[in-house]
Amino acid sequence: MAGYTNSPFRQLCKEMGAGFIFTEFVSSEGIIRESKKTFDFLQFIESERPIGIQLFGHNPDSMAEAAKIIEDRYNPDIIDLNFGCSVRKVVKKNAGSALLKDLDLLESVARSVVKAVKTPVTAKIRSGWNHQSIVAIEVAQILENAGVKALTIHPRTASDGYRNTADWTMIAEIKNIISIPVIGNGDIKVPEDALRMKESTGCDAVMIGRAAIGNPWIFEQTNHLFQGNSNYHEPDLSEKLDMCIQHITREKQYADDDHVNRIMKKYYRHYIHGFPNASEIRNHLVHSKSLDNTINILQRLRIGNLYLLE
Hints:
Blueprint: H1 7-15, E1 21-22, E2 26-27, H2 28-32, H3 36-40, E3 51-56, H4 60-74, E4 78-83, H5 88-91, H6 103-116, E5 121-128, H7 136-146, E6 151-157, H8 168-177, E7 182-185, H9 191-201, E8 205-207, H10 217-226, H11 237-252, H12 257-263, H13 268-271, H14 278-286, H15 291-302
């Protein structure tokens, strides 16, 4: 979710029913070196609470120091340790899911951070580095003993990336052997998936990631399902366009129009999914030269004047 879950995006998700949200993950080295770009990732507003700040790195001392800086400056509700990211530039630094290959170092990182801060520390893991080294159960026990207060499990290996199917049975296994809350993650595409995961694994909560891009309604819909109401609201096309315009408006509070026009282009295919002529509409939006023109296109679509795009 790096590159997507900035404050404007999180605000929309929160308002649509997300119970707990996390910042984009940040490098411990970037924090202790006072990198402005790193600190920019940590911007949030009070209405986003409860919020967790997610941290990655491999050096126990640096991770502990970075966690203390985060605690002092931002007072997050949680500090989350990322032991799950499989992106090459992260694992090349022996961080993220690379630590699943060195459980002694992973434990040292967790213990150092827990000892350094008063803020509750949580962690996110994958099932292992590859299918020859499935270590999630062992790691879950290590992290609980280290003082981690909750664990999120994405039951794919690092080598899987987002390929193959998440093995939800592992979530259930971990839930049965540790006493801290277990959060399930992976292959939640529609609200019914979230309910099915919770019922089949017994997990304490469900983490939704990619399915929320351009679709913050998924949180409201999932909450309705969890409350026993299967007749949840499906947004129509005009509502999706309204949300997209609102997203742009939020982004403009943090960046100039040219920057917003660039960064929003990765969201459009998600917002217009299911539209008639969606590929043509997306083409107009991603090739728009100005934010004013982009908004004009969205407003024309909003009132049904698709022919104006010709």
